[in-house]
Structures are given as structure tokens and as C-alpha cells.
Amino acid sequence: MSASVLGKAPIFRGLGEEELRQVAGVAVRRSLPAGETVFAEGDQAQGFYLVLKGKVKVFKLSPDGREQILRTVTPGQQFAEAAAFSGGEYPAFAQALTNCELLFFETERFRKLIAAHPDVAMGMIVAQANLQRHLVQMVEELALKEVGARLAKYLLDLSVRRQRATGQGDVVRLPMKKTELASRLGTVSETLSRTLRKLQEADIIAVKGSQVRVLDRERLVQVAAGLKL
Amino acid sequence: MSASVLGKAPIFRGLGEEELRQVAGVAVRRSLPAGETVFAEGDQAQGFYLVLKGKVKVFKLSPDGREQILRTVTPGQQFAEAAAFSGGEYPAFAQALTNCELLFFETERFRKLIAAHPDVAMGMIVAQANLQRHLVQMVEELALKEVGARLAKYLLDLSVRRQRATGQGDVVRLPMKKTELASRLGTVSETLSRTLRKLQEADIIAVKGSQVRVLDRERLVQVAAGLKL
DNA sequence: CGCCACATTGAAGGCAGTCAAAGGTGGTGG
DNA sequence: CCACCACCTTTGACTGCCTTCAATGTGGCG
To answer: What is the pLDDT of residue A169?
Structure first.
């Protein structure tokens, strides 16, 4: 049953058994295979999704086909809330990266849920706040930093997260294909490749496949802060 | 009294007299002169602000001092909600562009307000959703479009808004200094200047000071969509 | 009238995207 | 187990947009 996963989702954290059952009651389950499109930009938005299992990427496409990943959504997180509550159309594309189990919340039904459960409203507000932080950071990095700095920042974030999870943060594993990482960083695979090499040649990191070892955290921090390579 | 303005703010729309009084009760008034800093990046965030009068800019600074404006906030809108609900520090700077009257909502008190008034929660969620759309659009434009397209888009938005307000959308007035517009568009004043000139030379617009006349809306739309100049 | 901030223009250089091709890698089926 | 294929990654050469630096133009205001 999805209730157990539901209870772990930040927006439903702290709800009781009975309440979770109500939440599950207004949602519709949807499962789809890797590669499938969840929705396309411009589609009519009738609600938002919560990921139960798998990974979903949310992205924009440029006129000439380049892709900018806005975020990748993992279990417990929701996406397309903005579209659902700001009305109209989805402002981006969403595609399953792996086989996925999703919950779909129709806007109106969710609205009623909120009216009855302020906790859920608060959870949603907090989740949106976190997403906003993420977006603000992307804007900052795209506008003000070059690819080297964005990559360094990304590697540091990864390393810190790994540190917390396993107590060992010097070796990280890139959680996606490099092409995808490139579009997450607002660049293309060729440039990412060159930038990784420059960091290697400066003895700041060592790369083997998708394993990255941090050799000189000090300087990696400097690069992330804007120091040129 | 601020209650009348409050009632017009999107997040408090639809509240009754009595409720608005409660809302006003948890807020603190703060007025400050043009140029004053509301908060700096890194300051401890204890709540968010609603603008009653004036204009506030929210922006990031790069290591070498370049400025990226995230948004300008006008009466009835709030800012720093993300910081307030996602905890910790303000992720950007905020500065008064004109003399301002602000309302400050302390996070905990607002939280209680929400618990009692689902309508307010919903208003906040919708407001955040709108902001998210705005941020997503900025990311898209910074990552995928060049300066010409961003400028064209900006002019069109301005023109549409003027159309709605005055029924006459062909002549618009840039609402800020060009240097500032440049940083809103993620570039510098020199580039903005050149880009305006290119649009002029293509007979798409006519510029006189901060007056811009749209001569060929058709092609302006194409440029906004990514057509090279 | 002259100052000052803002705006414009020119020249030069760099970062990053595109195109093209070669090298790797993993997965599948024989 | 190996060979093949598709896809990803890397590398090189080139181009172009945009930033930087520097100098000149301009408009408002005391």
C-alpha cells in the first residue's frame, strides 16, 4: 500500500493513520515505464504528481532542441504543484527516467483536503519554499557563474550529501549520465567533458567513469566560489 | 489603515473584515526610504514581507559584484516566503527601490494564522506557485535563450501589460534604469545597449530614451521565440 | 554653465556551443 | 563467451556571443 510511502513524503509528514488514508483517497495511482512522458509543456494542468517510486525529470526545451533540466524528482517529492495551483498549462516537460509509480492529485480535490487539514497546507508551503530555493540557486548560477563553478558546486553538494549518508565523502558517484548532468548544469556534454578534464589536470579531482574522487576540497570550494580554472 | 490594501493582496483576497483584522494583528509595520536594505543574503530569516507601498528589488550578487535581479516586488505582493518557510537564512538581498511601506510577518505567528484560516494557506500556495512560474521562466531564458530573445520577451510582456492597463500597447516606458534592466535580463548595460540598437536597425522597435515603440510586433515575437537578429 | 551619473560606442579577448569524428561501454543475441 | 550494435563520452577545430576595458556622448540638476 502507498500509505507507508505517503507518510514519509515531506508534505504529509506528521499526519496520522486516518488522515493518510484520506489523502490516499483523493489521489489516483499512475505507473509508467522508463522514458514515458508524464506531461508535455502546454498540456492542460489539472493537478500535480507525487513520486512513489522511480525518478522523473522536469525540463524545458529550447527552440533548437537543447534541454535544460529544472529538477529531478525522487520518491517522496512532488512536482508540477506550480502548474496545478497557478492554473492553466504545464510550463515544462516531465518524463520518467526509470520505471515509476506516481500519485496524481487533482487540484480541486486537493484544495478540499487542504481546507480540512492545515498540516497538509503547511507541508505544501514548505515544499514549495524548498523548490523556490532550488530555482533561485539555479538562476544565480546560470546568470552569474561559469560552467566550472557550477560543476564544482554540484560536486561539492554531492560530496556533502554522501558524507552525511555514509560518513565518507571523498568519492562520489554521479547519479546520472553525463549528458544529463550537462543539461542539469545548463551546458552540453562536450563542455562538461572538457571542464571535468580541466579540474583533473589541476589535480582537484580524479575521474574514473562516473566515479569522482575529491583530491583538493579546498580548491574545489574556491572554484565553486568563482575562481577561474 | 492597512486593512484595505491587505484585502487586495492576492494571498488575502477573499477574507472578511474580521479576518483581515486578525491578519493585520500578527504583522509588524516597517517603513524605509529608497535605497535602504531590507535584508542581506545570509541574514537570519524570521519571516517574510508584504509590500504595501513602493517597490523592492530582490537580487543576487556574484563574487565579482555583478547583480542579478530575481524580481521586483510591487504593492500587494510578498517576498522572502521561501526563506521564511524553508528556514535558515535569506538566500538573496532585498533593497527598497523607492520609499516603502512593508508588513513583516513573523513565521511562527503566520503559521498559527494558517492553521486557523485555510483560505490564507491556499492564497499563499497560489502566490508561491506564481513565483515559481516566474523563476522557471528565468531559468529557461538564461539557459536557453540569448540576450536578444530575453529582451524581446521582456518588451512584449511590458507591452501586453500596458495594453491591458491603458488599451494602448505600442509605446512602452521602461520602468527602470537601463543598467538595472540589464541585470534583470542577466547581462550588462553595454550589451543591452547594443541589443536595443540591433532591434532598432532591424526596424522592429524605435527607442527614444526610455520610451520604446513597437513597430513590428510580428517580428518581435519571432525574436522572443529564438530567431537570431 | 558645468558637473555627475548614466548611456553609448569601439576594440579585443575568452568562454562556451556546434559540428564532426574517433574512442568507450554496456547490453543483447547468437 | 564473444561479437555486434547502439549510445554515450571524449577530443579537436572553429565560430560567435557576450563581457571587459576604455573612451566619448548626453541629459538632468544644482
So the answer is: 82
Cβ-based neighbour number of residue A17 at 10 Å: 8
Strand D bases within 7 angstroms of protein beta carbons: 8-13, 17-22, 27-28
Tens-digit pLDDT profile for residues B77-100: 999 999 999 978 999 999 998 899
A62 in contact with chain B, both atoms CB, cutoff 8 A:
yes
Helix (H) or strand (E) holding B197: helix B189-201
> What is this structure's pTM?
0.90
pLDDT at B65: 78
Separation in Å, CA of A126 to nearest CA in chain B? 5
CB within 8 Å of chain B, chain A residues 114-173: 114-116, 118, 121-122, 124-126, 128-133, 135-140, 142-145
Please report, for chain B, how many H helices and E strands are present, in that order.
9, 11
- Cα separation, B223 vs B85, in Å, equals 38
Q: In what order do the strands lie in the sheet with A47-53?
A: A27-32, A100-106, A47-53, A78-79
Residue A192's contacts (CB-CB under 8 Å, 6 or more residues apart) are A147, A151, A178, A181, A182, A185
Give me B104's grid cell. Answer: 513583516
Q: Which of B137, B146, B80 is nearest to B107 (CA)?
A: B80
Residues 193-222 of A with CB under 7 A from strand D: 193-194, 196-197, 207, 210
Residue ranges of chain A with per-residue pLDDT less than 50: 1-2
At residue B192 the predicted structure's pLDDT band, cuts being 50, 70 and 90, is: very high
The percentage of residues in chain B with a pLDDT greater than 90, rounded to a whole number, is: 75
Phi, psi of B140 (to 5 degrees): -55, -50
CB-nearest to A132 from B64, B124, B131 is B131
Query: Nearest CB to B139: which of A70, A122, A144?
Result: A70
Spatial distance from the CA of B132 to the C1' of D11 (Å): 39
- The answer to whether B83 contacts chain A (CB < 8 Å) is yes
CA of B45 to C1' of D7 (A): 47
Model confidence over A124-157: pLDDT tens digits?
999 999 999 999 999 999 988 999 999 999 999 9
Distance between CA atoms of A56 and A54, rounded to whole angstroms?
7
* Rounded-to-integer distance, Cα A172 and Cα A154, Å: 11
What is the distance between the alpha carbons of residues A14 and B158, in angstroms, rounded to a whole number? Answer: 44
Residues in chain B closer than 8 A to A118 (CB atoms) = 114-116, 118, 121
Residue A209 backbone class (left: φ over 0; alpha: ψ -120 to 50; beta: rest): left
